[in-house]
Amino acid sequence: MEPLVDESLSPQDSTAFVVNYINNWAAKQLLLSKAKINLSEEQLSKYDKLVDEYRTDLYTRAYLDALVEQSNDTTISSAELRGFYEDEKENFVLNKKLVQLRFVVLPNQFLNKDEVKEKLRTFEDDDRRYLDSIAVQFKKLHLNDSVWVSASRVINEISPLNSDNQHRYLKKSQFFELQDSLGVYLGKVIQVLEANEIAPLPYITPNIRQIILNRRRLGHIKKLQTEIIDEAIKKNEFELYR
């Protein structure tokens, strides 16, 4: 059992804490006594039933959670993720636009802008190594174009973009060059998915993983409940009524 008083408290603070704790407990007991006197028998019976149900639910949930935890399997293969996605992909509809792109933000006076543009366009292994090597000169850098990001996040990162002009620049295979007082924005869009299209697997993998784990957990709890009842029936400790 955890100590009531934190050992880091001073003697004066400890005393004040204990006094306050006792006073709060006493006030609750007085209120409880008044409630039992003034509430009707019907109300008291109703609340007692709710308390009993809550206690039962609390105990059984804690027990089942402990049993599930002992045999908890959180391993999910890529094949299982893919299979779940293919079976239920119609349920994973996007509610926002997603984009795959790479971009850099240069200072307005950057001298080698044309070379960076060319490297960003072709983006071979040597090009990427070059861009990485001079990354300290960029104001922003995003080269992982296999990752899906929301269009709203891109707009936040690239200030000349907005909800009105995004359809001009954030479209498949589009290369864009934008500029404002903060810098020059160079970007290459790889792929775009609009709202109401099916979400790509990499984007929703964390959600699918959690759904699979939740279903696995519920299935395990149901199996445990069945096993507990079967064992009780065998021992004549429980009888099913039909």
Protein traits:
elongated; 242 residues; alpha+beta; 13% strand; five-stranded antiparallel beta sheet
Plain-language structure description:
By secondary structure, the chain is of the alpha+beta class. 55% of the residues lie in helices and 13% in strands. The chain is built from 8 helices and 5 strands. Strands 1, 2, 3, 4 and 5 form a 5-stranded antiparallel β-sheet that branches. The longest helix has 34 residues. The two termini are 44 Å apart. The model has no long low-confidence stretch (mean pLDDT 88).
The total beta strand count reads 5
The portion of residues forming beta strands comes to 5-15%
Helix content: 40-55%
Low-confidence runs of at least 5 consecutive residues? none
Characterize the main sheet.
5 strands, antiparallel
Number of helices: 8
Q: Supply Rg.
A: 31 Å
| Average pLDDT taken over every residue | 88
Sum up the overall morphology in one term: elongated
End-to-end gap? 44 Å
Structural class: alpha+beta
The ordered H/E elements are HHHEHHEEHHEEH
SSE blueprint:
Blueprint: H1 11-38, H2 41-70, H3 78-88, E1 98-106, H4 113-122, H5 125-133, E2 140-142, E3 149-150, H6 151-157, H7 166-169, E4 175-180, E5 183-193, H8 201-234
Antiparallel strand pairs: 1-2, 1-3, 1-5, 4-5
